[in-house]
Task: structure prediction
Amino acid sequence: MSTLASKALDTFDNPNPERDYTIHIDTPEFTCLCPLTGQPDFATIEIAYVPDLLCLELKALKLYFWSYRDKGVFHEAVSNQILSDLVAAINPRFMRINADFNVRGGVYTRIVVEHRAADWQAPLAVELP
Result:
């Protein structure tokens, strides 16, 4: 299995496509470069999604994230690109990306982007005593 950075996103069949459930993936070591200074930017990328027919394979996702290490990109652009690429790979019912970037020049940046399938309705929240 490759350990080189790659934009390929492997998938596998959702084992329970009849049910809405949420998959949470946290990546605390995301890195890219500032497009203006070339200095490294560090972030935690949190993914939450309700799969439809496909799920993301985690090793491929890790290699996908590595592909940004040497890329100069603004926080807003990379957050939206990640969402677009993941949605294109698995077409989930719902997906939210939280990109929480470490401080740069005294400023923290948190980008939240979402995708919702046109025909999907979020289930009602259940409150337990």
Remarks:
- Residues 23-116 form a domain with the GTP Cyclohydrolase I, domain 2 fold (CATH 3.30.1130.10).
- Strands lie at 11-13, 23-33, 40-50, 54-56, 94-104, 107-116.
